[in-house]
Amino acid sequence: MDGVAEGYSGWTFLTNHARVLASIADDPGARIRDIAARCRLTERAVQKIISDLEQNGYLTHTRHGRSNRYRIEQGTILRHPADAGLTVAGLLAALDQHENPHETRPGQRAGHQGSDGAKKPADDDSMTATRFIGVGRHRVKS
Asked: Please, are residues 65 and 71 in contact by the beta-carbon 8 Å criterion?
């Protein structure tokens, strides 16, 4: 696997197809080599994934000289029955990280200041900690 960072043998939350799609969303003009490096896949695997996505209507490309420009079909529905009604645009929005990391995120209450002036975490019964994991320039809440 030339030029590919070390692989990962355990399970993950995102499929390679989702990673490639997120990478293309970040840079529609990215080369397959760059997508492969970013997603830690081989170029051949990325070519196959792009072919899958194009054959199923999730992605199109146009040729610009020696390079491709990809276009994601935002309204296409995710394939798994459990995801019925969810679109590619919804998936990419969930992965998007355009938020300022210092702002309070939707669904997350800001901490408050105690009487001693120290910042105390918000009282939240659903989650004791929120952390974001990078996927290219996208992040997902864990």
From this structure: no
How far out from the chain centre does Cα 141 lie?
11
pLDDT tens digits, residue range 16-66? 999 999 999 999 999 999 999 999 999 999 999 999 999 999 999 999 999
| Residue 72 to residue 91: CA distance in whole angstroms | 12
Rg (CA), the chain: 19
Q: Return left, alpha or beta for 9; rule: phi > 0 is left, psi -120 to 50 is alpha, else beta.
A: alpha
Which pairing describes strands 112-113 and 119-120: parallel, antiparallel, or unpaired? Answer: antiparallel
Which residues, in sequence order, are bridge partners of residue 131? none
Q: What pTM was computed for the model? A: 0.64
